[in-house]
Specification:
2 domains, alpha/beta, Rossmann fold, 27 strands, about 525 residues, GMP Synthetase, Chain A, domain 3
Amino acid sequence: MTGPIPPVRGSLPRMILRSTKPDPVVPDLTVTQYILQRADELGDKAAFIEGTSGREVTYAAFAHGVKALAGGLQARGVGPGTTWALMAPNVPEYAMVFHALAWAGATVTTLNPTYGAEEIAFQLKDSGATTIVTVGLFEETARSAAEQAGLEQVLLLESDLAGLMSEPLAEQVPVSLTEHVVVLPYSSGTTGFPKGVMLTHRNLVANLEQFFGHLPLGSDETCYAVLPFFHIYGMQILMNAMIARGGTVVTVPRFDLVQMLELTQTHGITRLFLVPPIVLALAKHPIIDKYDLSSVRQIFSGAAPLGGEIAEAAARRLDCTVGQGYGMTELSPVTHSVEDGDYKASSVGTLVAGTEARVVDDEGNDVEPGSPGEIWVRGPQVMKGYLNNPDATAITIDADGWLHTGDVATVDADGHTFIVDRLKELIKYKGFQVPPAELEALLITHSDVADVAVIGIPDEDAGELPKAFVVRAPGSDVDAGTLQAFVADHVSTYKRVRQVEFIDAIPKSASGKILRRELRAR
C-alpha cells in the first residue's frame, strides 16, 4: 500500500491504494484458450468428477467436448452476435456448454434456476438470448419463461447435447479480447433491478491471473464445487481457475453437509471454496468429527463477510488455514484476497495484483486511513458496463474508471481491508448508521445462535430499528431478552438490537447472501 499521490493543482488530495503484487502479465487469449492450455498435457487426468455419481470427465474428453460442441454450434449459425442462456446445476456439462459457446465466439448469459419464469423471461429478453440450455428438472420453468420471452428453442443437457456435437472446431473463433462480451451474468449492483454485467475475455483472464498472485493453485488441487457456476464466484474460481491450473473439480448440484464431508474424505479434497453459512457448519456441527478431513489445506470463503471467530473455529477444527476474499460480479469478481500466512480476523485480504482502490465519503473525498467509507476499485477486472443501461453504468463507473462498489470498508496500515457493510443495507437509527453485518458477526458467536440476519424496520421516532432474525441452535430455548442483553454488553447504545424474531431458517440466495428483502417482506 502506498501513501497519497500528489494531487493535481486545484484538486482534492487522493489516497490511492495499490496492490503490492507485481502487475499481472495477461496473455492475449480468450478465456477458453486460457483454461485449455494444459488439456493435452493432462490428458487422462480427471478435470471434473460428478459428485453424486462418481462419473469422471478427463481433460482430454473435456477439451474434445468443448471443441466438438463448438463445431456443431457453428454449423447451426451460432457465433459472434449470438447469445444463448444456460440454466443448469453444477455438472461437468455446464462447463462444456459454457466454453463451447465461448469457443464459437458467442455470448453466454447465465440463469439462476431458483428464479421464477417471469424473472427468467426478463433476463432472456434483456440479453437477447435466442436459446435456453437447461436440464429436465428446470424444463417446465424454462419453457414457461421462453414462451413469455418469445423464444422457440429450449434444449436439454440430458437429451439434446449429444445431437449438437459435430466435427471439432480446431481453433477459437476470432473475437476482440477487450470488446467481445463472453458472459453476461445479471446483478442488481448497488441499485435497482437486475442488470446484465458485460464481462469480456480480457476481464476474466486478467482476473484469473490477478487471483493466482494471491492463491497460486496447483495441479495437485481438488476442490468441492457447490457454489453455482451461474454465479461469478463459482464460475471463475471453481469452474475456470481450477481447470486453468490443472486441478480437479468435484461438482454437486446442491449443498448437503454429509455429502460434502463424504466427498472430501473420498476424493481428498484440498480446498473448500464456501460461503459463511457453510463455514459456520464446519465450525459448530458435531457431525464434522466423524470424517477424515485431513486433506483440506484451506477453507476459502466469499460472497458475504465471514466473522473472525467463525473462521478461527473452523481453522482449528479442520487444522487448516481459512481465508476469504472480496469482489462482485461487476469486478469479474476478485479485488481482494487473503494470502496463506497473511490472515487477519475478519479481513477480506489485500488488493490483488494490478488493482487500485480508494475509500471515500459521501462527497467522494478520500477518508483518513482507518476510517470507514465506500470502497472504489479500478483495474483490468472492471466490467465493460451494464447491457442496455448506460445510465446505470455511468452511476457505477465514473469518468476516471473507478467502480463504486456500494460497500463500506476500512483499510488498515498493512493494506488489509475490512468490509463494514453495503451502503444500501445500513440501518439509520436516530441519525446513526448501524451496520447489520457487525451485529450479525456478534450474535453468531453466541452458543445458542445457529444463524442470524439483521435488518432495519421502520420506526416513527427512531427512523429505523435494528431487528434480528435468529435461528436457535439445536436444543436451545434462548429468549429474545437474553440475546438483546448479550448484544448490549458489546456495542454502543445506538447499535443495540431492539427486536428479535426466531425463525426456522435465514433466507439466502444460491451464492449464500442473505435475502434481506424477504425478511423485510415479513
